[in-house]
Structure formats: structure tokens, C-alpha cells
Amino acid sequence: xxxxxxxxxxxxxxxxxxxxxxxxxxxxxxxxxxxxxxxxxxxxxxxxxxxxxxxxxxxxxxxxxxxxxxxxxxxxxxxxxxxxxxxxxxxxxxxxxxxxxxxxxxxxxxxxxxxxxxxxxxxxxxxxxxxxxxxxxxxxxxxxxxxxxxxxxxxxxxxxxxxxxxxxxxx
Length: 171
Fold this sequence. Notes:
By secondary structure, this protein is mostly beta strands. The chain has no helices and 13 strands. It has strands spanning 2-6, 14-19, 31-39, 42-50, 56-62, 70-76, 88-96, 99-106, 111-116, 124-129, 136-144, 147-154, 158-162. Strand 11 (136-144) and strand 12 form a beta hairpin. The protein is globular and about 45 Å long.
């Protein structure tokens, strides 16, 4: 599930809201990662879910009102042009040139799917980093000397990929 904790009083944290399996999303049964992003003035939580053998993907929730999160969209592996989300693990959020992207590590497919999150209700594929050779489990995006890079950690190596051209990333 997903819980939002109010830590405005760090000594006495309280649960602002909870979402569990079947309430409203049956896919929250196997969450792997949660990331947050400010998109168009609203705060969203992106939750990756699944395992190597069942439903895989991520769900987006509007959490601008932490006491009342609202599911905005769900992206499933094999649907809507997203074919590389098996074994989703990490979701790294990055703002590149004023556009918000999610970089989703698809462990089983050994890829990082790049997703345009400009419209959280209708995310679109912006590219894929493929041929990683191992299962990616950690992703970090950084700008260095005016070029954008994604650092991808896997079981046996770290790969650094130039993402200045998102539709054709280069190792």
C-alpha cells in the first residue's frame, strides 16, 4: 500500500492517509518504490509495482491534498506503448528543459524507460535505454557541463548514459 505521513511535528508523526490493495488500486499489493514530483503546481506520488512474474508498471497519485490522494493514472507493462516495464523498481524524477520525466528501471527487461510526465493523467513514452546487460535497480539523473546524464546501477556495474537526445540515448 501507500501511506502518507504528516511529519510537521517530527516528534509526533501522524498518518494523513492510507491506500491499500483494492482501495482504489489492486496493484498496490506489491509496491516497490515511491517517488514524488511537483508537476504543474501539484504534488504527485509515483508508485512502481509488481515483480518479475506478474503485473508490472506504476501508478500516479495526486497527493496535493495529503488527506485525500487521488489516483490519476496507471501505466502497465505491455499497454499503451509501454513494453519495457517488467520488474519495475526505481523511479527517478527529473526536470529537463522544463519538462518532467520519470526514469523507470525495468529490471526484467534490463532497460530504463523514459516517461514524459507533463500530463500525469496521460504519461507518454519519451524513449528507452536498452542493452544494459544486467538488471538495473538504481537510477540517478544529473546535468554535468550542460549535458544530461543518467547513472544506472545494476548488479555488476554502473553505466553512464548521455540523454541529451532522449529518443536516442547513448552509452
